[in-house]
Amino acid sequence: MGALTGKTALVTGASRGIGRAIAERLAADGALVAVHYGSNDRAAQQTVAAIREAGGQAFAVRAELGVDGDVDTLFAGLEAGLDGRPLDILVNNAAIQAYDATVEKATREDFDRVFAVNVRAPLFVIQRALPLMPDGGRIINISSGVTWFATPEVVYSMTKGAINVLSRSLAHTLGARGITVNTVSPGITETDMNAWLNEGESARRVADMTALGRHGQPADIADAVAFFASADGRWVTGQTLEVNGGLFLGPTGER
Ligand SMILES: NC(=O)c1ccc[n+]([C@@H]2O[C@H](COP(=O)([O-])OP(=O)(O)OC[C@H]3O[C@@H](n4cnc5c(N)ncnc54)[C@H](OP(=O)(O)O)[C@@H]3O)[C@@H](O)[C@H]2O)c1
What we know:
Belongs to the short-chain dehydrogenases/reductases (SDR) family. By secondary structure, this protein is α/β, with parallel strands linked by helices.
């Protein structure tokens, strides 16, 4: 029996990247997983198929976040798949980066779009999930190391700062129900969002500034999420865990 046997989970943005790895890990631990995605049907079906081939249970839910009616669409699909079961674990993972949204080039449209997907959607997904969630449930929000190291893409970073605040605030509010709320904050991880990692010397440069000498893989993040989702994480709430192999721990150079 797995650590999550009998539990259910919703992972947003689970068709690819970190979300897919989280969905696979929670399913491997025994949870029935709702694999949410925005538009990439093929990737979502591949994730569901991979989970089922490994002996797990999953179903796909398509809903573009950041648009009118997004949460209604998501929960219609989620509740159909859960078929009357509660939602024990919610992982808010889906997000978009906007490489052009720097202080010089950001537009109001960029700002509204990135905040709608990365901040507004998680808040209202949580609001809608709470009535389905039993006491003792788990909420894990995916943030980013850009909340503590500076990058030019300031709008994206601002959204992740908001996610950290959301988690801490809700951990306090929802403690009365025994629901834990934590943040997992990946470092530089190899996904479609970071296609630049495959360009030139990028991977080596990231390895040089990381204590453990490489960039992250989605499964590195998923394993940390699984801890917060499990019974072992029951006494941890309101925390942000940096899962980054020791990124920027000190000066680079000879070791
Ligand atoms: N990769 C990194 O280095 C890194 C570092 C720090 C933090 N993070 C965070 O980790 C999380 C996952 O990132 P990732 O790199 O795995 O991303 P990714 O590879 O770009 O995958 C994004 C996922 O989110 C879904 N998605 C994106 N926009 C959506 C929308 N508007 N509505 C619904 N679904 C949407 C995508 O669905 P479709 O397949 O349908 O498009 C996909 O499943 C994000 O919160 C990100 O900010 C990533």
